[in-house]
Amino acid sequence: MGVDQNKKKSDRTKESRDAVQLHRQISLLPAVSFIIGTVVGSGIFIAPKGVLMNSGTVGLSLVVWALCGVLSLFGALCYAELGTTFPKSGGHYTYLLETLGPLPAFLRLWSEFLFIRPAVASYVALAFGRYVVEPFFTPCSAPSLLIKVVGILGVTFVVAVNCWSVKVASHTQVTLTFIKMFALVLIIIPGVIALAKGKTENFQNSFEAESLSLDRLPLAFYNGLYAYGGWFYLNYITEEVINPNRNIPLAITCSMVTVTVFYVLVNVAYYTVMSPAELLQSDAVAVTFANRALQGLSSLIPILVSVSCLGALNGGFFGVPRMFFVGARDGHWPPIFSMIHIHRHTPLPAVLFLYPLVVLVMIHGEIYKLINFASFPRWFFLASATLGMLVHRYRFPLRPRPFKVPVVIVIIFTVVSFFIVGLSLYSDPWNTGCSCALTLSGVPVYYVTVHRSRVPPRFRHFINSCCKQLQILLEVAQQEVQTY
């Protein structure tokens, strides 16, 4: 009798493993690596200049870096509560849908697909291309066409890995994360040694400066928060995390504390070796630092920075497609996005269909404008999600919350996030206004296609026919097992 039960149990396990679904394969270490590997991209090698320029002093810039880390940790803790309260993948989309309704959730999908993801991925990919190519052309500037070609190759590699296997993508992320943390350690150690030897002249009178301007101080926070961006990516893959009630809060806390400590120490190392004036003159702070403090290893830094960019790119293509996958599963996005490869168990269409948009944006080259476009909806929807969390707490006080954040943390993060949104409207009304208009352009699309479908039957039949042909071509099918 016991043998028969064990055989039946083994058969059920095999059926579950072979069923078309996204399996729970992400344990604590890959989860931590996923967050750190996505957060630590090009930002820490670019943003120090912007933080110092707008804060005006060395001391205040270090305070800004620490406070940006604390604010990012607050936001990450809010998302840890949301991720354990609503055990579905999809991140922002899922939380807006559950707390504020379908229209804000659809607008999040619309803006992410239309311009946020192409802009962010293109920016990181071009940073990757630049750090790979420029060492071969020093002291001359590298050809922009070659930078774009190498950036596209980087995107192609990441897309191929994420289409091929969840496990391979996860292991790639862990490996790239360890390499990029090695890069940060390589910067920190010479700075700490120099500091221990008494090289502290750049920290003298570090809070005194005539250049400090209160209206520019928020821009310093804006630059710092850009470098911490990505702490919410684990919430995109909640259904693939093993024991999410434990591992999501633990991974978020460990990773964000680690990143904050490392970021502050990296900036201390920068200021120990370089004067504020030298830092402001440098377009590649890490490379300038390496030429000063790591003369024997200076050629290694661009390679490590490019690996760091590749890790951030991989994290983005691993997480964001899950949001479109969940949106399509709920009927808010074309159904082809909700399908999984029948053998590889990856959300292949959702990953693959982002690729041409990113390549198009990279070829067009208007990256900085699109980054400005991307910032407004990103912070607006982050603030909306945490505001929705407060609303949900009020409406459903008895709802089980395996991880609960003190309400003061939620309020602080929500208020500061809406302040950042208001600041962007004040400081850059044109780009912010265009971004707002592009986001709101999803409203008529929602009411025509989702709320009450007014799509002509002939056009609907054409779309369904295309989806079936793509399904056959890509060898994908709908999820067979409910994973939430």
What does this structure look like?
It is a single chain. By secondary structure, this protein is mostly helical. It has a single domain, classed as Up-down Bundle (Amino acid/polyamine transporter I), CATH 1.20.1740.10. Helix content is 73%, strand content 1%. The chain is built from 20 helices and two strands. Strands 1-2 form a two-stranded antiparallel ribbon. Helix 2 crosses helix 13 and helix 17 crosses helix 18. The longest helix is centred in the N-terminal third of the chain and has 32 residues. The radius of gyration is 23 Å and the shape is globular. About 2% of the residues have low confidence.
Summarize the structure.
It is a multi-pass membrane protein. With 484 residues, the protein is an all-alpha fold.
Classification by helices and strands:
mainly alpha
**CATH homologous superfamily (4th level) name:** Amino acid/polyamine transporter I
Ends distance? 32 Å
Architecture, according to CATH?
Answer: Up-down Bundle
How many extended strands? 2
The string of secondary-structure elements, in order, is HHHHHHHHHHHHHEHHHHHHHE
CATH fold-level label: Amino acid/polyamine transporter I
Q: Provide the helix percentage.
A: over 70%
At the first level of CATH, the class is Mainly Alpha
Which range does the strand content fall in?
under 5%
